């Protein structure tokens, strides 16, 4: 038997109720071969008359024979007049019998009026039996008002009269009237029978949770009556509690009170637990049902039993398919496979689990089908993104079944899932046209909602908006469809505006409304609107919905409010997979809290959750930022354990992780195994890995290989390679990439264009950068930033500030990076006052809070201008504690002071803070040593270098390099390792002699060692940049000389290069650690302000 099954939340199922052959004269729904799920949650397959008396899900149906019997022994009010008959003659008796025979069981309003007229003509208007019959016909024809009028005019009433009217009120969707009549009946002194009890309980169920209190009062009266424990009444009680109460306890109590349970009792309880998502208990009840001892034998499951259990498996997760297979076996043994209701449920279940081929086979084999069967198959195909097949099913079946509104809604959903969206939209327009021709467009709001959803998913948001505008009636689903459509089509502002419009109509948002609107707020960065929506959700109790909380997590993550993310996550009542993934992803994207992503991942595993592909991608991103090699290997092992190692997205994440962790061997192995699974991200990750680990040659070779094999290069690939070329100032390689981008028609792409501007600026061709910037058809903030920073880096501060003004006039708002370029430009040209004006405008004009980088630029601005006394006051005014960047800038400024009068105490303080914060950074010791050397404090300099040796740190060797046709040539100070060293030093000696003849005197103060004058001059003459320029001059060329240096150029070399440019009559471009120097005809572009 079935025991201990996992839980899920089933949907209501479609049931079939076989018609009662008995004649009826009380209100009832006409039985149909198959009714909708909401019409009948119970199946009647009774073996005795009492089972046919009451269907808890329908208004009551009272057999005529019972009415006749009750009428002949009427329960009239105490003191009422005796029943008046028109006469005792045979003729009157025949007329009476004729009227009964003619109108019994009728549900036609015309018959009701005829009977009413005949009763007046023949004098039977006071006849109790015919009066009850007349009331019954009126309520069955939907004329409750006439029935009430007859009721009010009746001189005599009995319990049947009240039962007819209470039942009729429920049938005509007047549950409030039914409850009022029930109270009047009690007040009049009549005792309700089980028909009345059943009807009023059904009326309570119509009210939902609002009807629970009155339903419990009715239950109390039942407990005091003879119907306590009656199976028929108790079945309706179970149904009422299932619909009104959020707990299953009350329904269980009613279930346990039943003296002799029937299949309806068991089916009711199974249905309630299935609806609550407690599938385990539902299947345990199913097992107990088959061995019920109350009957002396086990009860056989009906088609409703199987239908309920099948629908319960729909959302049971991975175990749902296993459960469905077991139920399928029982269905076959029980002979219900050919049943329309069970077959429809099976078709829907198989399709939902992706077994669409099996579902289609079963659908074809079914001898009977209806719209629900077809809808179930179409829904399954639509969920599998097989919209074309779902549409074919509709076209093939539409003539053999009666379509309902849901059929057309499902068809519209299928149109949105076509592999070619344009074809789906075309088919959807055909359906739309049919609605207009058939006059259905305003018949049901669900059709308009379906059209909005279809157009939105097909990318035609304007058509979706048009459908919404023309709809006469709109409900919450209409607004949800429109708001969600705006969000999906990136019309985020329209989404927020629609939310406000909906609220002005008086509608309250649901969870789907909040989710879509919060998603749009996250995309726009509208944190305030998001917080307002969060407050509304709290008032409406929607914050308990885990999906709404997940949307809030995404909002706070997108807007950088990581602390709010963590607080919200802690306060959430429950977490699901999305909650954990959102939190880990938010932390992984945060620079300051990225290490906590690993902590949350560990907590997630300890909580019993299994990571999925999104989890792995997020945690691998965090590991990439942290460069945790060992943890990367552990996560890789988990990926293999969960058998998703061949997922392309996971492999790409592993490539990025290993690349940033400096492990290229695993990268290359994974990449080689991917073969046909490689996509653009795979290639880009591999190229980025090579570049990150400074294997530019391998990166370029991979790019050429991509081009040779016809692999499409996207804008990200070009931008990445161009960025690498810029970082090492490889102009020739950068120009080759530029040519490839032009052939790939990506030159006009704004991302590639911005990268080209940045590359040319960093490679020394500011003229190319400026020319390309002017030709860009579209510019974004990165384009402007690249050009402004390029001008600043080349000492063209005036041009940088002019471009900044043009940027503002063009409407492009500057960001934090823009102001770094602007402040650097002011620093390189000495515009102190203007620099402070721009610094203040960040907050006052653009609402940007200055970051540590901006404060560092201002310290550098004061230091280069020689305003060393103002630096300390500026640092003390900072709203944040200075970090290593500030102290390093201060120490560099004092090192450049070269012994001028200054407050050396601040320099000492900066050195102490640096050595305290970063004792293992060699740059700090070098800066301290240079500061002492510039002031000729040799003993202090010696102590600084000794401290450096004791800390066991090594400084980066200063070097210069040039790119020639035969490769890149690298030189260090006093370098004699080059094969052409003799020629180089001969050229260097020649240059020194010519420079001295022109008046050059070595700047020995830049020889930061305590040596005699001659040794200092010799030391200066063999600096790496001088050897590099001598090497280039050994080759015949008239092209400008381009030299790159990894450290700041010294003052002596700067003077020497001005002489050399005049001697050789060639332009020399020197890029050092901070900026570019353009030497031409004895002058430098920096005008000696650097």
Task: Walk me through what this model shows.
The protein is mainly α and 1090 residues long. Among the domains are: 369-473, Alpha Horseshoe (Serine Threonine Protein Phosphatase 5, Tetratricopeptide repeat); 960-1084, no CATH class. It is built from 55 helices and 6 strands. β4 (1068-1071) and β5 (1076-1080) form a beta hairpin. α14 (303-312) packs parallel to α16 (340-352), α32 (613-626) runs parallel beside α34 and α38 packs parallel to α40 (750-762). The radius of gyration is 43 Å and the shape is elongated. 46% of the residues are buried. InterPro entries: DYW_dom, E2_motif, E_motif, PPR_At4g14850-like_plant, PPR_rpt, TPR-like_helical_dom_sf.
Structure in a nutshell:
With 1090 residues, the chain is mainly alpha-helical. Belongs to the PPR family. PCMP-H subfamily.
List keywords for this structure.
mainly alpha, Serine Threonine Protein Phosphatase 5, Tetratricopeptide repeat, 6 strands, disordered N terminus
Q: Strand arrangement, largest sheet?
A: 2-1-3-4-5-6
Query: Count the helices. How many?
Result: 55
Computed over alpha carbons, the radius of gyration is: 43 Å
Q: Which structural class do the helices and strands define?
A: mainly alpha
- Straight-line distance between termini: 87 Å
Please tally the β strands and state the result.
Answer: 6
> What is the helix content?
55-70%
Residues in β-strands, percent: under 5%
- Unreliable stretches covering 5 or more consecutive residues: 1-88, 293-297, 1009-1013
Specify the biggest β-sheet: 6 strands, mixed
General form: elongated
Identify the quaternary structure here.
single chain
Mean pLDDT: 81
Domain DYW: 999-1090
Keywords: Repeat
Protein name: DYW domain-containing protein
Family: Belongs to the PPR family. PCMP-H subfamily.
């Amino acid at each position: 038997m079935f025991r201990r099954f996992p839980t899920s939340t089933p949907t209501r199922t479609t049931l079939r109720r076989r018609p009662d052959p008995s004649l009826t004269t009380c209100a009832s729904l006409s039985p149909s071969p198959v009714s909708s799920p909401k019409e009948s949650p119970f199946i009647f397959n009774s073996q005795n008359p009492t089972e046919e008396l009451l269907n808890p899900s329908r208004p009551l149906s009272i057999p005529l024979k019972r009415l006749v019997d009750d009428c002949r022994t009427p329960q009239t009010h105490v003191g009422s007049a005796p029943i008046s008959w028109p006469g005792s003659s045979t003729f009157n008796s025949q007329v009476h019998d004729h009227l009964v025979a003619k109108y019994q069981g009728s549900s036609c309003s015309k018959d009701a009026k005829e009977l009413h007229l005949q009763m007046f003509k023949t004098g039977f208007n006071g006849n109790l039996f015919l009066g009850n019959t007349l009331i019954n016909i009126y309520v069955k024809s939907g004329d409750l008002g006439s029935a009430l009028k007859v009721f009010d005019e009746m001189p005599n009433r009995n319990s049947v009269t009240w039962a007819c009217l209470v039942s009729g009120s429920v049938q005509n969707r007047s549950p409030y009237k039914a409850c009022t009549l029930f109270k009047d009946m009690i007040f009049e002194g009549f005792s309700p029978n089980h028909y009345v009890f059943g009807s009023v309980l059904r009326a309570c169920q119509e009210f939902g949770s609002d009807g629970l209190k009155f339903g419990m009062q009715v239950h109390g009266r039942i407990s005091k009556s003879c119907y306590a424990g009656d199976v028929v009444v108790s079945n309706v009680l179970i149904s009422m509690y299932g619909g009104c109460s959020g707990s299953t306890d009350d329904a269980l109590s009613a279930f346990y009170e039943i003296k002799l349970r029937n299949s309806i009792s068991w089916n009711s309880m199974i249905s309630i637990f299935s609806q609550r998502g407690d599938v385990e208990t539902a299947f345990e009840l199913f097992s107990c049902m088959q061995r019920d001892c109350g009957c002396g034998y086990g009860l056989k499951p009906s088609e409703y039993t199987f239908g309920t259990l099948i629908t319960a498996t729909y959302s049971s997760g991975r175990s749902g398919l296993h459960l469905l297979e077991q139920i399928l076996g029982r269905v076959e043994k029980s002979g219900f496979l050919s049943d329309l209701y069970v077959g429809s449920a099976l078709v829907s279940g198989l399709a939902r689990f992706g077994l669409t081929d099996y579902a289609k086979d079963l659908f074809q084999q079914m001898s009977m089908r209806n719209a629900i069967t077809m809808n179930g198959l179409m829904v399954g195909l639509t969920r599998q993104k097989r919209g074309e097949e779902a549409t074919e099913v509709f076209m093939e079946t539409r003539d053999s079944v009666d379509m309902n509104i849901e059929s057309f809604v499902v068809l519209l959903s299928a149109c949105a899932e076509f592999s070619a969206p344009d074809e789906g939209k075309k088919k959807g327009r055909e359906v739309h046209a049919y609605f207009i021709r058939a006059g259905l467009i305003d018949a049901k709001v669900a059709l308009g909602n379906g059209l909005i959803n279809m157009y939105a998913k097909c990318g035609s948001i304007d058509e979706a908006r048009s459908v919404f505008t023309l709809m006469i009636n709109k409900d919450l689903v209409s607004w949800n469809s429109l708001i969600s459509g705006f969000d999906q089509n990136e019309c985020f502002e329209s989404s927020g505006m629609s939310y406000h419009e909906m609220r002005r109509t008086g509608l309250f948002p649901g969870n789907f409304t909040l989710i879509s609107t919060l998603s749009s707020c996250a995309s726009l960065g509208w944190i305030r609107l998001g917080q307002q929506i969060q407050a509304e959700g709290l008032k409406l109790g929607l914050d308990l919905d885990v999906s709404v909380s997940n949307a809030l997590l995404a909002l706070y993550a997108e807007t950088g409010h990581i602390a709010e993310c963590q607080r919200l996550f802690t306060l959430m009542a429950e977490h699901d997979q999305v909650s954990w993934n959102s939190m880990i992803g938010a932390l992984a994207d945060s620079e300051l809290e990225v290490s906590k992503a690993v902590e949350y991942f560990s907590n997630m595993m300890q909580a019993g959750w299994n990571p999925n592909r999104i989890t792995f991608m997020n945690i691998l991103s965090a590991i990439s930022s942290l460069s945790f090699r060992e943890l990367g290997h552990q996560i890789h092992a988990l990926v293999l354990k969960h058998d998703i190692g061949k997922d392309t997205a996971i492999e790409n994440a592993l490539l990025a992780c290993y690349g940033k962790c400096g492990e290229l061997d695993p990268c290359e192995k994974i990449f080689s195994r991917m073969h046909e699974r490689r996509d653009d991200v795979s290639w880009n990750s591999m190229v980025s890995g090579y570049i990150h680990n400074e294997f530019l040659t391998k990166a370029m070779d991979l790019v050429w290989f991509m081009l040779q094999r016809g692999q499409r290069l996207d804008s990200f690939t070009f931008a990445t390679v161009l960025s690498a070329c810029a970082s090492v100032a490889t102009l020739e390689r950068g120009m080759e990439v530029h040519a490839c981008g032009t052939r790939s028609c990506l030159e006009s792409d704004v991302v590639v264009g911005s990268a080209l501007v940045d590359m040319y600026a960093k490679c020394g061709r500011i003229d190319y950068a400026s020319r390309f910037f002017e030709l860009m058809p579209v510019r974004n903030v990165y384009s402007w930033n690249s050009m402004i920073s390029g001008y600043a880096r080349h000492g063209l501060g005036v041009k940088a500030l002019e471009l900044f003004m043009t940027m503002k006039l063009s409407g492009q708002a500057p960001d934090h990076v823009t102001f770094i370029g602007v402040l650097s430009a002011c620093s390189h040209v000495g515009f102190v006052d203007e620099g402070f004006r721009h610094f203040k405008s960040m907050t006052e004009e653009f609402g940007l809070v200055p970051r540590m980088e901006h404060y560092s630029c201002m310290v550098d601005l004061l230091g280069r201008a020689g305003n060393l006394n103002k630096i300390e006051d500026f640092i003390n005014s900072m709203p944040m504690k200075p970090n290593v960047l500030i102290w390093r800038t201060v120490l560099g400024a004092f090192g450049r002071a070269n012994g001028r009068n200054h407050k050396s105490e601040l320099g000492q303080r900066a050195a102490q803070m640096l050595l305290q914060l970063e004792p293992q950074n060699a740059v700090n010791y070098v800066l301290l040593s240079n500061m002492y050397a510039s002031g000729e404090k040799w003993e202090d300099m010696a102590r600084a270098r000794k401290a450096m040796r004791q800390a066991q740190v090594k400084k980066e060797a200063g070097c210069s390099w040039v790119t020639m046709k035969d490769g890149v040539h690298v030189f260090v100070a006093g370098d004699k390792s080059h094969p052409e060293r003799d020629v180089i030093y001969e050229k260097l000696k020649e240059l020194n002699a010519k420079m001295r003849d022109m008046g050059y005197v070595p700047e020995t103060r830049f020889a930061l060692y305590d040596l005699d004058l001659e040794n200092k001059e010799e030391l200066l003459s063999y600096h790496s940049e001088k050897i590099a320029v001598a090497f280039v001059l050994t080759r015949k060329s008239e092209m400008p000389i381009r030299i790159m240096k990894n450290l700041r150029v010294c003052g002596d070399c700067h003077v020497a290069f001005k002489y050399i440019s005049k001697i050789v009559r060639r332009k020399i471009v020197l890029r050092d650690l901070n900026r570019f120097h353009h030497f031409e005809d004895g002058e430098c572009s920096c005008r000696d302000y650097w």
